[in-house]
Amino acid sequence: MVLVALITVLLNDAGIISLAYIESRLTYFIRPVEIGLGATVVSFVIGFAVGIPMGVVRAFGPSLIRRRGRTAAIVMPLYGFVSGYVQAIRGTPVFVQILLIVAVVERLVAPGTLGIEFWGGVVALSVNTIGYQAEVFRAGFQSVGQGQVEAAKSIGMTPLQTFFHITLPQGLRLIILPLTNEWIALFKASALLWYVAVQEIMWAGYHLEYIDARPIEAFLMVSFWYLIIMIPLSKAITYIEKTKRIPGLGSAAEPARKRLFGGRTRSDAVDASR
Amino acid sequence: MIEVKNVHKSFGDLHVLRGVSLNVTKGEVLVMIGPSGSGKSTLLRCINLLVQPDSGDVFIDGVKVNSREVKPEWVRQQVGMVFQSFNLFTHLTALKNVEIGLTRVKKVNKEEAERVARFELERVGLADKADAFPAQLSGGQQQRVAIARALSLNPKAVLFDEPTSALDPEFIHEVLDVMAKLADEGMTMIVVSHEMGFAKSVADQVVFLEGGTILETGTPEEIFNHPKTDRMRSFIGKILG
Amino acid sequence: MAEPTAAASDRARAFLKAHRKSFRNAGIGGIAAAVVFLIVYYLGLEGVYDLSLAARILPALFQGAETTLGLVAVVIPVGFALGFLFGFGRTSHSWFVRSVCTTYVEFFRGMPPVVLVWFAFIIIILLITNVEFLNVRIQDPFAFATFMSVLALAAHSGSYQAEIVRAGIMSVPAGQREAAEAIGMTRGATMVRITLPQMLRVSLPALGNEFASVIKDTSILSVVGVMDLTFRGQNIVSRLFTSPTGGSLSSIFVVWVEIAVLYFVMTYSVSRLLQWLEQRYRVPGLEAAQL
């Protein structure tokens, strides 16, 4: 459906744009695509690894704190830190985060190192996605039906056991959708790395336009690459949404209170339809 | 065997349990009846410590369980629970649901756990559904698996929180049958239910709870045929029609 | 005369009691923020970073923030208009309308906003300079191109809003429409009086979210020269490099952090406002009914 639209545009403008030109420059994008995807994937994985524990802290922090005592004393500053981090990240533009962090990284690490901007970009993207993924995990853990947790307790599981055998497996199923959305958002944010000289897809388009002064073709090529990755993913998402309604899996609609300002994700639109 | 002494519990401003006392001897079946919101579920949860009483004591086999030295996990191995909404673990098969208490909590080895699990499933009449997921089972079947799960840890008593209230009428019977069979085998049971037929035929003791206090207690004979208070009378009248 | 005041103070007491929890949370939040602020200020005084710099750039940053808000004021309504149009279109009975709308949504949602903004700018410039017709008509190509970039961002936001609108419309139970038609309402009246109000209520949180996102996305417009908050930041940082004293890591850090704080204040205010709105227009029991 959408591909049709794309193709028609292409054919339409054959007079204004040069298909031959596009062909000649096709290979130009291969390395940038690798770089762009690479940055996204690495950052995402880091976000996943750090996001889960942070999600745990955010999800279970309040109840641990309410119980006072020694655990509360340890948990409270941790919870404060994690919450502050998440809110700061979600409340500020990615672009600003990238500019700040890349500037810092470039100066802290031996300046002039080849490719430092790539790693600076990865750090920036990681920092960003950690914040958003922490929220995803928090929501996931909290959405696991309370009845399940009660039942686990009633057969004698300790809170830790309950988490590992019940909350975690069920939570993981719930977060697939929002996590995919986050990946998409991250990939789109990677386009911003162009500005700090990371040679990914947008950069390639920009550079190409600079050399050859053919913005329309450049735009089409850049669009092609982004869309070719995005659209199948979003189709996959709608498919997952429709089929993966696991009955009995707690789906308490997230109270609006918790839904603070946040990244733009499709799950927000989906949540509205629940 | 299970003794509840003068338990109070409040949730915020709501004083749910106002000094409730109960006594259940071994092998006895106690049925708790009363209007919604009277604190029946809360009382049940005070026994297996899903809820901590504000004051008062709970004794199981002479051991005071609501004290700091006693681990809630230990208590729950002594007393099993069956929930109104079944609460089966949706990501596990029926067999695994029953096994998991044994393998994870009691640290029994896999073969032994499976043997016991299959035995319990057989006991509730669902041996053939061992590999089914909860979503594939009917309400009555799910609840019976839940009962098997509660029994897997070989508890001294089982608590039932309105086990049939969420079931379609056609399935209530099969669950009550299992419960009656359990009672016959000598299991100590505390059942919160609206099923008066069950109370009449299976209960040894009936307790009427309203507004957080026990209004009346006695044998089914006494309660249903000779209610002492007016409130009890009107309640019975409305239920039995 | 004693009666009204007694009633008033009762109501006040009830209000305080009901909102006890949120007052307490606000109190804790306020204290925490004050503590953090004091720590940061103290560090500044101690010379850990250049406090005077932070103070000096503030006016410029405020101007940038003004621009940002101005941009937001354009992007959101346009985005909403587009979003409503295409979101509604996606629920159409006509396959053609649906496809067109879906194409719009898929395209603008799948593209990174940077790409849209920058290429919109550069392509428009190209078109204006090369196409006679436009060349004559348009006075200031750069201003026009900038405007188109803003529209590109609006289109991007619009695609998200379209999805929100669509989800909102679909979440209004079909029974509502049937009931309205059963009592004789026309299609149009049903839409306006029944579906729309409910849809807006449902979509409010998501739309508020989008509002905050737009505030953040306007930072992208800085790459085409719009003098928003982020642009000012870039400006200041580059000037720091050329000045004899500036260019150190900590001063760059200070600049960007200050900017981040300003953005945070903006997005946080929006989300707070949103929460308040939701509370105010809450229909009791609606959430339970929808489950």
What does this structure look like?
The complex is a heterotrimer of chains A (274), B (241) and C (291). In chain A, 77% of the residues lie in helices and 0% in strands. The C terminus of chain A is likely disordered. Chain B has nine helices and ten strands. In chain B, helix 4 crosses helix 5. Chain B is globular and about 55 Å long. The two termini of chain B are 35 Å apart. Chain C has one domain: Orthogonal Bundle (MetI-like fold), CATH 1.10.3720.10. Helix content of chain C is 84%, strand content 0%. Chain C is flat. Chain C starts with a helix and ends with a helix. Chains in contact: A-B, A-C. The interface between A and C is large, with 60 and 65 residues.
Would you spell out the secondary-structure blueprint of this structure?
The complex is a heterotrimer of chains A (274), B (241) and C (291).
Chain A: H1 2-12, H2 19-25, H3 30-66, H4 69-91, H5 94-108, H6 116-143, H7 146-154, H8 159-190, H9 201-212, H10 215-243, H11 266-273
Helix pairs in contact in A: 3-4, 3-6, 3-8, 3-9, 4-6, 5-6, 6-8, 7-8, 8-10, 9-10
Chain B: E1 2-11, E2 14-24, E3 29-33, H1 40-47, E4 55-60, E5 63-64, H2 72-78, E6 79-82, H3 94-105, H4 110-123, H5 139-152, E7 157-161, H6 169-184, E8 188-192, H7 196-202, E9 205-210, E10 213-218, H8 220-225, H9 230-240
Parallel strand pairs in B: 3-8, 3-9, 6-7, 7-8
Antiparallel strand pairs in B: 1-2, 1-4, 4-5, 9-10
Helix pairs in contact in B: 3-4, 3-5, 4-5, 5-6
Chain C: H1 2-18, H2 20-45, H3 51-89, H4 95-110, H5 113-130, H6 132-137, H7 141-171, H8 174-182, H9 187-217, H10 229-242, H11 249-280, H12 286-290
* Number of H/I helices of chain B: 9
Calculate Rg of chain B over CA atoms: 18 Å
> Structural class from helices and strands of chain A?
mainly alpha
How does the major sheet of chain B shape up?
Answer: 6 strands, mixed
Distance between the termini of chain B: 35 Å
* DSSP strand content of chain A: under 5%
What's the main sheet of chain A like?
none
Q: In which range does the helix fraction of chain A lie?
A: over 70%
Structural class of chain B: alpha/beta
Secondary-structure element series of chain A: HHHHHHHHHHH
- Rg of chain A computed from alpha carbons, rounded to a whole number of angstroms: 22 Å
Q: What is the general shape of chain B? A: globular
* Uncertain stretches of 5 or more adjacent residues of chain A: 246-274
Rough outline of chain A: elongated
| Overall helicity of chain B | 25-40%
What order do the strands of the largest sheet of chain B run in, or round the barrel if closed? 6-7-8-3-9-10
